[in-house]
Known about the structure:
The complex is a heterodimer.
Chain A: H1 2-34, H2 41-58, H3 68-90, H4 95-117, E1 132-135, E2 138-141, H5 142-164, H6 166-176, H7 178-183, H8 188-211, H9 220-235, H10 240-260, H11 263-280
Antiparallel strand pairs in A: 1-2
Helix pairs in contact in A: 1-5, 1-8, 1-9, 1-10, 2-3, 2-4, 2-8, 2-9, 3-8, 5-6, 6-8, 9-10, 9-11, 10-11
Chain B: H1 4-23, H2 28-53, H3 61-79, H4 83-107, H5 113-133, E1 139-140, H6 156-178, H7 180-190, H8 192-197, H9 202-228, E2 230-231, H10 238-251, H11 256-277, H12 284-299, H13 303-324
Antiparallel strand pairs in B: 1-2
Helix pairs in contact in B: 1-6, 2-6, 2-7, 2-9, 2-10, 2-11, 3-4, 3-9, 4-9, 6-7, 7-9, 10-11, 11-12, 11-13
Amino acid sequence: MVPTLILRALVDGVLLGLFYSVIALGLALIFGVMNIINFAHGDFVMLAAYITWLVARALYLNEAAPVAIVTVPVFFAIGIAFYRLIIKPLLGGDPLIQIACTVGVGFILQNVALILFKAEPRSLPGLLLGTYIALGPVSVHLAKLVAGAVSAVLIVLIHRMLTGTWLGLAIRATAYSEEVAKTFGINTDRVFMLVTGIGIALTGFGGVLWMSFGQVDPYLGASFALVSWIIVALGGLGGIRGLIYASLLVGVIEALTMTYISPSVAKAIPFVIFIVATWLRPQGLFTGRG
Amino acid sequence: MFTRRDLVTALAIAVAGSAVPYALGFNQYHVLLALQALIFATIVLAWNILGGYAGQLDLAAFTYVPLGGVVTCKLLEVYGVSPWLGMPVGALAAMALASAVGYPMFRFGVRGVYYALSTAALTVVVHEMFILIIGPWDFYLPRYDGWYYLMFRTWENLYYVVLTLFIAVVLVNLAVSRGRLGYYLKAIREDELAAEALGIDTRKYKLMALLIYSSILGFVGWPYIVSQRTYSAWSFSSSMSIYVVVAGILGGRGSIAGVAVVAIALKLVEDVLRGYIGGVAPGAHLLIYGLLLVVISIVQPRGLGAVLERVPTLVQGWVMWWRRS
């Protein structure tokens, strides 16, 4: 009996961790390449979840997944606008001001959502993916399984893009040193724009994944913002691998404490780990080449 | 430590502040509003010491405020201890928590965004621990009346107490900014490594700033929860802590007048907006804060303080222009 419970918590935790890693990856890209501290990241996920809900309702869809075709390009465009209007003036500035400004963007998104959609939570029926399937001894929520699998594929794709293409090389060169990248003829402004676009497009994807099993309210962003920052900080900059380890760690710990202790401890534990981990290893738990 | 001008300013604030309840005709709703604005301004001025002078982005203001308030309240409810004694104990509790978390952070060189994240995480942890240990319910304060309980049927008396506290915190800010501590803190804000290279014990002075900040917050906790009439796990709030930072940055980090003016103005604007359009658009005041924050951080990152500094020269310029024409 007990092993099944542990197994189920582990599977849930891994799937949750994979989902977190998509959101955290967007944040890590923006922070790692441009040194921009974005506190509005979670609120973009919230916005994406609402747009998913709206589009699915308008097209009489029960599932969130197909809406990704709409949200991902839309959020890429939003990301580019976000770069032009907000990020570019803040580049290289005081971190305090970056945080203040992106918190302001978060306030705007939250309260526009509150005014438009009111505070009640919204969700999609998710008939097709709402079932549980047996995976050996554990039964898994199909929507979460799909979300986890899609997240894993996405992470691999981004990793390939970063390591195997010219664009990825340009991004890594710019992250290494903007000045050096410029002398080699890389248009760093365009790289920054693309990175912000990709980072925000990932939140667009995260919103769709979330809506395939969760519900959205205007304050959804706050819960993602802090968790994804903690994953980035634990993972350390410099590799996707560290990021994935950190996401899985946070997801699994959250699921295990949720099962064995209580939901309120489950929410606090990753934060306690984070506080102590920054004392011991300020450069991140899993720093290394990725 | 204080010049004559400072004392005159303090006296002017005291006189003007005392006149406020009379000007409001002792309308209880308006006096309560003034009280809340003043409490918020006191909190933001306390943040100014750590966030404004030392440049440490602390996001845990509303961990320390309710902590001090709850400690004071429990002492009164369970042991009948007067808040006059309970408030200092609350301040000590806030300082104890701040140093338990702050000392290792400064010791191990946690700075910048990691400091901000750790303090935000602290608020979440305390919030969840409160639910776990005390419970997820709303707690209403016992109804007392009198100076022993520092709680009254009307709001003026508490307003005067907080006004005194506010003036004291303004003076603390002045003393810090003029003194050696202030110069060290500003050096740390501008370039921590350079400050360290010059032989400033950065850990020690950051910790001092943190302790001053958290003790003020713990102290003001009791008036805060009295003015709210209730406390719960949701008093430990990241979003409230963020509003403190918003006011501190909009006011201009390190500018005492700018910070105080912005804190009071934001609180009043919030209430007016809530009253007029709250029914239609519940988050309108926060939407406006958000817009202000974005515009100011891009256009004038030094906040209102920088604008206020230029007022005397502007006025001089106008006067000269007027005389000439």
